[in-house]
Amino acid sequence: MLRESFLDNKQITLKEIAKLAGVSTSTASRALDERFDNYNSKIAKNIREIAEKHGYIRNIIASNLRRGTTRTIGVLVPYLSDTVMALLYENIANIAERHNYFTVVATAGNSKEREREVIKSLLDRKVDALILATCSLDDENIASLRRNKIPHSLILRTDGQSYSSIGDDKAGAYIATKHLIDLGHKKIALINGPIKSSNSKYRQEGFIEAMKTSNLKLNKDWIINLGFDIKSGEKSGDILFSSKKERPTAIFATNDELAIGVMSSAYNHGIAIGKDVSIIGYGDIPLSSRLPIPLTTIQIPFEYMAERAFNLAINNQGHYPLINMVTPTLISRKSTSKI
Fold this sequence. Notes:
Blueprint: H1 2-7, H2 14-21, H3 25-31, H4 42-53, H5 60-66, E1 72-77, H6 83-98, E2 102-107, H7 112-124, E3 129-132, H8 140-147, E4 152-155, E5 164-167, H9 169-182, E6 188-192, H10 198-213, E7 223-225, H11 230-241, E8 250-253, H12 256-268, E9 278-280, E10 297-299, H13 302-314, E11 323-326, E12 329-331
Helix pairs in contact: 2-3, 2-4, 3-4, 6-13, 9-10, 11-12
């Protein structure tokens, strides 16, 4: 019957469904909308059975537009090939679905111009709110959202001025570095991305603070800021491992993909991970525990961060602080060991 209704030029109307059920049009409309309290009542179930029998298809878009909402959230990430970004989006989409919202994801790379174009495109599609994982420090695109009072929240990265759901990156980096120090390491390198976003900035600050509070010397040649991907991690590892000067005994990579790249470089240079060099990452992506030498890392509660970001964008009526931080956790595995 449903297939026939698609092929039939004349679609049965809500008014006709209501007439067949012996109820008003508004009662029939509420019975077909799961958000109403009477959705599971006997009358509502009867209306839905009639609607299904006659192949009625509810026009959700038109219904939501009449209410001034599309129940759609736009999610903006740099790349979906980045495992952390993919995990964040998956969690946001799952939480949105539980609240009867639909999500649309878009990527902007590292281009602010592209980010601006994508934001405009999502807003043209009448999304109810935006959740962005693309925020850089002093981001004019985010400032424009605030000026225009467009509902939005930031996730993973913040500019400190819009409602944000982030990890305590400085504390997480401190924990990671202190773990290496507690294992007896004194010659520790940092592999990070460019200092253009809050997470890379605060993770680098946490590393430096842990080194200084332990009275350990910072080697500027061992602080490398390239990209955030596996290739950048491998290139950074090559710089450290091919050096004819002194090598670090431990490396803190500010995300797991960087750490995996460093591990690849170590393997190519014949350096034993967990023996000749200790490596710790950040993020605890699913692959980290499944590597030949499981990666010690800092775990981020993605689901909690995603749920808070959703609430900040959709249900925020001043109930939450501006910056919502979660404390990361150390996950110790075989890629780090005592010196």
